[in-house]
Amino acid sequence: MSRGKSGRAQAAPGGGAGADRSGDSYLPEHGNGGYRVTHYDLELTYRPNTGRLSGRARISAVAEPGAAGEPLSGFSLDLGAFRVDGVLVDGARAARYTHRADKLRIRPARPLPAGAPFTVEVRYVGVPRPVKTRHWGDLGWEQLEDGALVAGQPIGAPSWFPCNDHPADKASYRIAVTAPSPYTVVAAGTLDSSTVNASTTTWVYEHPAPMSSYLATVQIGLYDLVELTDAAVSPVPQRAAVPPRLRDRFDHDFARQPRMMAAFEDLFGPYPFDEYAVVVTDDELEVPVEAQTLAIFGANHVDGHRGCERLVAHELAHQWFGNSLSVADWGHIWLNEGFAKYAEWLWSEASGSVPAAVIAARTRARLADQPQDLLVADPGMPRMFDDRVYQRGALTLHALRTVLGDDTFFAVLREWTATYRHATVTTEEFTALARRRAAEPLDALFTAWLHTPRLPELPGPR
């Protein structure tokens, strides 16, 4: 399990116990060591009138050896303020556990041999509470006026299921949600079935591709289901869940999404998942949020004039940059946000609007009047989502494009997405790939744009 800058999660001392810290350079208290997850199977029942969530999580994992190769005698999961009703390891073995401070610490009846697969089943119930953060507000499960949404980036996943909450521990998922029948449930993955019971419907979504825990999501609301697929433009299945009152505005604002998908496949390589979905909530959201195979927008992002189309491009681009290619450590966040921001500029160019070079020049001029105290490749945890990480990250890519030329630059992007498809990535891996493709040294460019606070000048056209 890759841990980026810190290598691997450090094993806790004493008897092969897994660490309850990930070793991440920014958020070490989120995520855990001693094992890697291969699959999550989630069975959830939600009551919108009370907000109560009942869950059974069955997690398949593989034990990792301790420092001396000893078996795993204990491990932990991240889980918010639920009542835990029971924990089983490998089906029949009741396990001892404690649950406090958002850590579920488990000690199986017998130590787990290094390299051995095992399962842990957790039953839990309660009213989900968002994860409160100092810098980013409340994250994770959020009760809406009529339904619920999950916006998990970066540490909101434990608000609704037990997990190893670090982006580098990617796993496949099955998510089954039972809710009252008037409600539509959309989750990460592909809808496998929807079964109507007496007064409820159970929706089952399967997602075989590896997914980071913060990218798993469930959206529940009174939605119309809309088909967006245009096979003549792009074969990727595309769908949406939209409040009925917003249908007309949505149909106009998202009409060009199939063209956007085709343009991005040309620029970035094949779409990395089986389908793509959009959910528009009936509530307003400060910003849209990406999840794997879908994106969530607020009612305020649908105005009937395509006023937020750049955000549609941004969230779609995250399916390549952030979701298929996930950061090995949160310190590499520009690989998500800088690339998605640059995709906004590329769509502007591809759709016949303002060229990326013009947007880059305007952006640099604005940034020149702002504090120049941020390293794109290491902004620090409080500034992970500082707008300058997005803007300067995009400028870094435009500078690289200018130096390499379009043919080489887009060949680099396609090789990047193909080489690390469904894997984890670091800044060093991206710069090494670009250097291999370049006809001239890139050290000065990367030092100036990624590792120096002062804003460089954009290189002139070649």
Automatic annotation (TrEMBL):
GO annotation terms (biological process): proteolysis
Cofactor: Zn(2+)
Family annotation (CDD domains): M1_APN_like
Domain Peptidase M1 membrane alanine aminopeptidase: from-to ranges: 258-449
UniProt GO MF annotations: alanyl aminopeptidase activity; metallopeptidase activity; zinc ion binding
Major enzyme class: hydrolase
Reactions catalysed according to its record: Release of an N-terminal amino acid, Xaa-|-Yaa- from a peptide, amide or arylamide. Xaa is preferably Ala, but may be most amino acids including Pro (slow action). When a terminal hydrophobic residue is followed by a prolyl residue, the two may be released as an intact Xaa-Pro dipeptide
Keyword Protease: yes
InterPro entries: Aminopeptidase_N-like_N (IPR045357), Aminopeptidase_N-like_N_sf (IPR042097), Peptidase_M1 (IPR001930), Peptidase_M1_aminopeptidases (IPR050344), Peptidase_M1_dom (IPR014782), Peptidase_M4/M1_CTD_sf (IPR027268)
Highest taxon in the source lineage: Bacteria
Protein name per Swiss-Prot or TrEMBL: Aminopeptidase N
Source organism (scientific name): Streptomyces violaceusniger (strain Tu 4113)
Taxonomic lineage from the root: Bacteria, Bacillati, Actinomycetota, Actinomycetes, Kitasatosporales
